[in-house]
Design goal:
The protein has six helices and five strands. The chain has 261 residues and is an alpha+beta fold. Strands 1, 2, 3, 4 and 5 form a five-stranded antiparallel β-sheet that branches. Helix 2 (85-99) crosses helix 5 (179-190). The N and C termini lie far apart (127 Å). Mean pLDDT is 77; it is low at 207-213 and 243-261.
Length: 261
């Protein structure tokens, strides 16, 4: 009996050892491999989801590409990367024809570097302090009610626009036409393809028929055009332009050249 019992116990122990070894050697690696495969599948599915979103966005961007290229072309014409005064002269002639005026003179100065605008908050802070001070408000009410001045629009600046990548060229254009025609020319100039900031508009010539009481027919329009380039490079591009490109008047004479004379 004792021998048989020992054999049974040994057989049972052997079976347990075999099962344990079978689990450790055969089942456990398979379970680990299955878990790793499941985790890998989850990661792949997440990556596929991200790729699908990227493809959707790329398809949307591709559909918008023609419009973006058109907008880029408009912006490039508005603020070019070179002086491009010859093409600007062509634009002036077209605007003059459309408004019924004649360009009789054109001058341009050397490009200057852009100077970032510094916002003066002193006046704004003082106004805010006065508004928040009840005593000051009571005193002002007791004496007289001051007129409400219009609020200037908030100044918008871009820190990426600096003197190293932006410059301006001062332009003066002389035109011949009536007051209404001159106003139409200025309006068209401000809305033209090249960005132009009007800084001056005045009569500089004689009156029609020599009558001093008549409406002057000679006008000077001053302003600025901008270049997405530093001043030195812009001056070089000004000098490289054809020096004989001029704006011609009705009398056949020419104004200063586009090279900045």
């Amino acid at each position: 009996m004792d021998r048989t019992r020992m054999l049974l116990i040994a057989a049972a122990l052997t079976g347990v050892v075999v099962l344990a070894l079978g689990f450790l050697v055969g089942v456990q690696p398979q379970l680990a491999a299955a878990a790793a495969a499941g985790e890998q599948q989850s990661n792949v599915e997440q990556q596929n989801g991200g790729l699908r979103q990227s493809l959707t966005q790329l398809a949307k961007d591709d559909a918008e590409l023609p419009a973006l290229k058109s907008e880029l072309g408009t912006l490039t014409t508005s603020v070019p990367s070179q002086a491009a005064l010859s093409s600007f002269l062509t634009q002036l002639d077209e605007l003059a024809t459309a408004s019924g005026t004649t360009v009789t003179g054109f001058t341009s100065s050397d490009a200057v570097s852009y100077e970032p605008v510094v916002v003066d908050t002193t006046a704004t802070d003082a106004a805010a302090a006065a508004a928040s001070d009840p005593a000051a408000n009571d005193g002002a009410t007791a004496t007289a009610t001051a007129p409400v001045l219009p609020t200037a629009p908030e100044l918008v600046t871009d820190p990426e626009i600096t003197a190293s990548n932006f410059s301006s060229i001062s332009i003066t254009v002389s035109i011949n036409g009536s007051y209404a025609q001159a106003l139409d020319f200025v309006s068209k100039l401000q809305g033209g393809s090249r960005l132009f900031l009007v800084t001056a508009f005045a009569s500089t010539g004689s009156s029609e028929g020599g009558d001093t009481s008549a409406v002057p027919d000679q006008w000077t329009v001053g302003g600025l055009v901008y270049v997405l380039q530093d001043a030195a490079a812009t001056q070089a591009s000004q000098a490289a332009e054809t020096p004989t490109t001029t704006a011609e008047g009705t009398d056949g004479t020419s104004s200063d050249t586009a090279a900045g004379e």
